[in-house]
Amino acid sequence: MTIQGCKLKATLATVVNGLDTLEAVLLAVSVPAKHDVAYGVERRHYAVVGETLLWTLERGLGSRWTGDLAAASAAAYGALCAFVINEAYGRTEAAE
Q1: CA-to-CA distance for 54 and 4, rounded, in angstroms?
Q2: Are the CB atoms for 54 and 74 separated by under 8 Å?
Q3: What are the angstrom distances between the C-alpha of 58 and each of 67, 76, 90?
């Protein structure tokens, strides 16, 4: 789990630092997504990760976490999640 945590942090850093370059973000999440199934990741896990990520952002940003930022972050995660699920499972479905 330690190695997986490090990989997730590296991927998140790439996503955040590459927000202005969609191709770089999609490339960064494509390969790990394809390994998710082999690691036992299920579709429903993506929703849990998203909830945890948004909760962490809210706590970390404090008063800077606005309704607009929350909505935009949730939408961005949802779109990225749909891409990852498609890469991992071969079809786009919303995270459960």
Answers
A1: 19
A2: yes
A3: 10, 15, 32
Give the Cα separation of 47 and 52 in Å (integer): 9
Domain definitions of the chain by residue range: 2-89
Is residue 12 pLDDT above 70, yes or no? Answer: yes
DSSP code string of 41-69 = --HHHHHHHHHHHHHHHHHHHGGG--HHH
Asked if residue 83 has pLDDT above 50, the reply is yes
Assign a CATH topology to domain 2-89: Globin-like (1.10.490)
Listed residue (27, 3, 5) closest to 15, CA to CA = 27
**Are the beta carbons of 45 and 55 closer than 8 angstroms?**
no
pLDDT number for residue 91? 60
